[in-house]
Amino acid sequence: MSSEPVVTHFASKLPSVGTTIFTVMSKLAADTGAINLSQGFPDFDCDPALVDAVARHMREGRNQYAPMQGVPVLRQAIAAKFKDIYGATYDPDTEVTVTSGATEAIFNAVAMVIHPGDEGIVFEPCYDSYVPAIELNGGRAIVIPLRYPHYSVPWDEVRAAITPRTRLMMFNSPHNPTATVLSSSDMVELARIVAGSDITIVSDEVYEHIIFDNLRHESMARYDALRARSVIVGSFGKTYHVTGWKVGYAVAPVELTTEFRKVHQFTTFATNTPTQYALAEFLAARKGYPELPAFYQRKRDLFLRLIEGSRFTPLPSRGTYFQLLDYSAITDEEDMAFALRLTREHGVASIPTSAFLYRQPAPKVLRFCFAKKDETLEGAAERLRAL
Predict the structure, then answer these.
(1) pTM to 2 decimals?
(2) Among 170, 206, 220, 380, which is disulfide-ready with 230 (CB 3.0 to 4.6 Å)?
């Protein structure tokens, strides 16, 4: 009898997708011993009291499935934060859902809206999960380039892009990778554009507490007309320096949350129980997030001071823990080629912005993460100044 293996052939739903750039650059940094300013996570620990709280809840027996929508005390704390900061009222029982990371929440929100043939508007550069989420659900991503070098939203193009098939618009502020933020005038213009439509907004606000220069985070929750049609996504990983815990959330009006939870219960169903209880304690006590703007602004300013005298030109960083650097004074290489050479030959890993692009050519800028220890930033800057 033949023992030849059976090969199953099928058409890929994401034929153009390979290994993510974050995995590629972090592996290259590890293989070469480079300083890793590529992937967006801190190289310092979270508050030890938060770890102690998780351990305490584990010892107290909170180790079984959490409720599908999240443990009540955490949902209550999330709702209280939105009321306190944005003046927005969300019912913790029917309008707040805890998810296994913000990426799950984004996928759920897209899946609940997009049917085959529908269109979703995204803005590039954009986080790498947005377009695949639309395509996996049978939709078509309509990509609108932000206007370089300020990465402003071209509202005239947004108006022109809306068709009878438009079901979704995805926003991210503070924005990864550009470190820009939406303004109040942007929000007013958006409200005008979507008025009278059935368009749902998915608002990725995972960096909501990392905003600089006394700017105000313009959450969709601040604006009644936008809040009524928005799924707002947040991340405890970004706020509490625990990206590996993968705990996020979504807040939305009850009609949207009902549909959101239908998808959520068949993706992850529930999220790690003891971490939810620990995060609820910190959030309810207002621990961690009020000091984040000053904490990360100091790191941004330190990194910028350290690279003074280099041939890199920084673009404004208004939020997130990323800094774009223009390298056009150094080389004419495409951004991916230069990022690879910078890692291999000069020992600093970054992310090329072409990884976030679909339509427009990549400018000569790289993204660097400054959510690092001071000594990490000092070591990286010394190498960057030497180019």
Answers:
(1) 0.96
(2) 220
In our burial notation (b when 16+ CB lie closer than 10 A, e otherwise), range 327-336 reads: beebeeeebb
Cis previous bond, 290, omega within 30: no
Would you say how long the chain is, in residues? 387
| Surface-to-core class of residue 313, CB atoms within 10 Å of its CB (0-12 exposed, 13-18 middle, 19+ buried) | middle
- Is the preceding omega at residue 116 within 30 degrees of 0, hence cis? no
Distances in Å between the alpha carbon of 271 and those of 102, 133, 206, 233, 245? Answer: 12, 20, 17, 15, 10
Question: What's the CA gap between 225 and 342, in Å, rounded?
Answer: 46
Q: What average pLDDT does the chain have?
A: 96
CA distances from 371 to 50, 253, 303 (A): 19, 33, 10
H helices, E strands: number in the chain: 14, 13
Please count the other Cβ atoms lying within 10 Å of the Cβ belonging to residue 170.
25
User: d(Cα 345, Cα 330) in Å, to the nearest integer?
Assistant: 14
> How far, in Å, CA of 271 to CA of 62, rounded?
12
Express each pLDDT in 22-77 by its tens digit: 999 999 999 999 999 998 999 999 999 999 999 999 999 999 999 999 999 999 99
Q: How far apart are CA 23 and CA 26, in angstroms?
A: 5
Question: Which residues, other chains included, contact 365 with Cβ-Cβ below 8 Å and sequence gap of 6+?
Answer: 315, 324, 325, 326, 327, 335, 353
Residue type, 41: F
Phi, psi (degrees; rounded to nearest 5) at 375: -65, -30
**Any bridge partners for residue 314, and if so which?**
325
Exposure string of 55-67, with b = 16+ CB inside 10 Å and e = fewer, is eebeeeebeeebe
